Amino acid sequence: MADLTYKDVWDTLSKVDVSEHTEKKMNLTYLSWAWAWGVLMEHYPEAKYSFYEDDNHVPFVTLPDGTCEVRCRVSIGDLVREMWLPIMNHKNQPVINPNSFQVNTSKMRCLTKCLGMWGLGHYIYAGEDLPDADAKEEKPVGKKPEPKKEESVKEEPKQEDDFDYNEAWANAFVDGFLKVVTIAETPEEVKGQYKANAEQIKVLKDKFPDQKKRLDDLSLQYVENLKQSSKEVKYWKRECRVTERSTLITISRTISNLIGQAKFLYQEVCSKNS
């Protein structure tokens, strides 16, 4: 491992065909991080990765405009490469004050992008469909691409509408959505999450009505809890104002009594001295 070079790693990983492990979302192509890391482990099991954290364990960097980015480092022996990625919402727009779901998603995408710097799936970020075939008759790494036919038509990239929305996706989406909802402080913030995820929620409604009902029921329950908490806060504020007013009246009466007693004692002393 001491003699391993960046070129060695690149020559190995850049030959891997990742085309069957990607998906298209909002005009961007994503590679499965779990599969990509598995490939790396097959060839370099001593590889390690780490993510940036500041002294307060905040896992991202806040830029001057308020948006944030995550940073990742992958090391193979003494070789190190780093990469960064903005934290984005479901529309691939950079966000301010990201939630834990957005941070976690961006971290794993950043890891995959960093692996691209080693050669694994690098052509995804160059907009290509397949890696350049090596003319050498070496044992291929990963699945070997099928030979191109002379008059074959280039396969159209997978569109957003063709994404495989399955039960596992629906369950994961609802779980993630509910985690975000539980940090909302007002019913309006919950409504905002519904609006921001309108496309995915429509998919739930059309294809997974049971999951949609679970999302609605638990969200509504949380909203009711927020409303109840708000009522309790208003009640205690009102009680505190009543108590404060009563206390002030009591203090005022006490002061008046003390002043009256002081006047009486003063008059007594004056009459004795005279």
Description:
This protein is an alpha+beta fold and 274 residues long. The chain folds into two domains: 6-131, Enolase-like, domain 1, CATH 3.30.390.80; 167-246, no CATH class. The protein has seven helices and six strands; from the N terminus they run H-E-E-H-E-E-E-E-H-H-H-H-H. The chain has helices at residues 6-13, 33-43, 100-117, 167-181, 187-196, 198-207, 209-273, and strands at residues 22-25, 28-31, 48-51, 61-62, 68-76, 79-86. Strands 3, 4, 5 and 6 form a four-stranded antiparallel beta sheet that branches. Strands 1-2 form a two-stranded antiparallel ribbon. A hairpin with a 2-residue loop joins strand 5 and strand 6. Helix 2 packs parallel to helix 3 (100-117) and helix 4 (167-181) packs parallel to helix 7 (209-273).
CATH architecture annotation of the largest domain: 2-Layer Sandwich
CATH topology of the largest domain: Enolase-like, domain 1
How many whole angstroms does the radius of gyration measure? 32 Å
- Number of domains as seen in the coordinates: 2
Give average pLDDT, whole number: 80
What fraction strand?
5-15%
Structural classification: alpha+beta
Low-confidence stretches: 132-144, 151-161
Q: Count every beta strand, where a strand is a DSSP E run of 2 or more residues.
A: 6
Helix content percent band: 40-55%
- For the record, the CATH class of the largest domain is Alpha Beta
CATH homologous group name of the largest domain:
DNA repair protein Rad52/59/22
| Outline type | elongated
Query: How many strands, which pairing sense, and closed or not: the largest β-sheet?
Result: 4 strands, antiparallel
Order of helices and strands: HEEHEEEEHHHHH
Q: Helical region count?
A: 7
Ends apart, CA distance between termini: 110 Å
